[in-house]
Fold this sequence. Notes:
Blueprint: H1 5-31, E1 35-44, E2 47-55, H2 57-80, H3 87-105, H4 110-128, H5 134-160, H6 180-196, H7 205-208, H8 214-220, H9 227-235, H10 237-240, H11 244-264, H12 270-290, H13 294-321, H14 339-353, H15 359-373, H16 378-404, H17 420-444, H18 455-458, H19 460-476, H20 481-487, H21 490-497, H22 502-533, H23 535-552, H24 557-577
Antiparallel strand pairs: 1-2
Helix pairs in contact: 1-2, 2-3, 2-8, 2-13, 2-17, 3-4, 4-5, 5-6, 6-9, 8-13, 9-12, 9-13, 11-12, 11-16, 12-13, 12-16, 13-14, 13-15, 13-17, 14-16, 14-17, 15-17, 16-19, 22-23
Amino acid sequence: MKKFSICFISFFFLFFFSILNFFLMVYFIMENMVIFMEWELISLNSINIVLSVLLDWMSFLFMMFVSFISSSVVYYSKSYMSSELNLNRFIMLVLLFILSMILLIVSPNIVSILLGWDGLGLVSYCLVIYYQNFKSYNAGMLTALSNRIGDVFILMVISWMINYGSWNYIYYLDFMGNDLEMKMISMMLIIAAMTKSAQIPFSSWLPAAMAAPTPVSALVHSSTLVTAGVYLLIRFNNLLLNTFFLKVLMVLSGLTMMMAGICANYEFDLKKIIALSTLSQLGLMMSILSMGFFDLAFFHLLTHAMFKALLFMCAGVIIHMVNDSQDIRFMGGLSYYIPLTSLCLNISNMALCGIPYLAGFYSKDLILEMVMMSNLNIFIFFLYYFSTGLTMFYTIRLLMYLMINDYNLMSIYNFYDEDYVMLKSMFMLLLMSLIVGSLLSWFIFSYPYMIYLPLNLKLMVLYVSFIGGLLGYFISNANFNSVNKFMYMYNMSLFLGLMWFLPNLSTYGLNYYLLKVSQNFNKNIDMGWSEFYSGQGMFNIIKIYSIFNSYIQMNNLKIYLFSFIMWMMFILFMFILI
């Protein structure tokens, strides 16, 4: 019982912290308040080291979601990680992770943002390599190095902001937008956000990070690590408006959304499918953010956090049930054996698709209708709606493989009664996944968005969702073998299933050739010519001469006499020449 105490203490603390944040958020919205606090830590001559905190309705609302989801995840970990010997160490790492995210949320200062940002990167590395095998180490290194690029850009922002005399970015948001330095800063911030939120070309780390334990995946992919980049751009929104880099971000995030949706349909690893759906939703948030609708991006970020955490928790229960296999081809008919977990999984999946009146519908439908209202070209329009159809496609495929198709596992005896500790934490999130969309739309928007469109455009979301759902049904139904064979043609699935070769480009493409060149340098120069002419070569030459010298200096009378005669002849010869 002793090793569970830290789980309960963490759960209660985080849960009450989320309730406190909720009431504070309501109060701050009603009073239209913002609190900006500064503590002077060190004052040395003209240098002041100051800790700044910005508290407004947005930071309280985001902290409420982070702490609520974290409390569910910590409580869930009590059962999920019950066989783990170092459970307390795991919980401590998760709490450090949450603390880093909260520091990032309340920071109006780019230096303290870096502390939270780097804390997320460092602790995520420790959590990804938690199971300590080769796959985890590779995934952890890819995650850490990808995020390191963003850390470098944040450091560059810090050095560029010295021009302004303070690192509190909120002072400059309104009136420094046209300054050249601020344009450079906005470009660096966008690149930093792209690394953290895994946009093309930094996407390959996000599915690789699935090597972490499932509770960590639920936390990372809902409200913490991957949302940090989106949150940073939301905070810096006034600087970014009407910049060229935002248009570039729009195209890249739209492509990320489509690429992730396509890849999820070629994937058979349960956790990777959910990870790719996260990547698709991150692309949606980034693209709507790059159109200037920062409130909508924040709205979708929060609604998405709830059902995505729930989805990962359900996946964790299922993986435990089916003998720790993550391949969806070995699953099937689960709804007969684990009905409550299946209920949670189905509702969170429907919320992801944007089925009316669930959490995802309120944000997703609003985003797509705002896209229609905006003055955009057909390419961006296609990316949004095609990706929406793909979301329905891989969701129905997942439900068919897990719930409807025949049972495929080797033994039936893997199934056991559902764990009530896990179910309690999942039901907390289930309730929020049902009601959070309408609640947030009341809180965030001061007036209801009423968008008038022609009937066909208004129903376009339902059309693409219906077509995507039908395709998902045909692809995953065992009776349609010809369709399946067409879908998984080798060359096609190789390109589409490997995230458009992004993992190859960011790992093998960089590592293999660079390591090959360094191996050749090592072989030919370090161990070759430089060894021959410096270290080993000099040693051999001196060794040969010293052996010869020692042979001469042995007390042998004939050698002494011979050398004496040779020297005398040499001197005589030199004397004659002179």
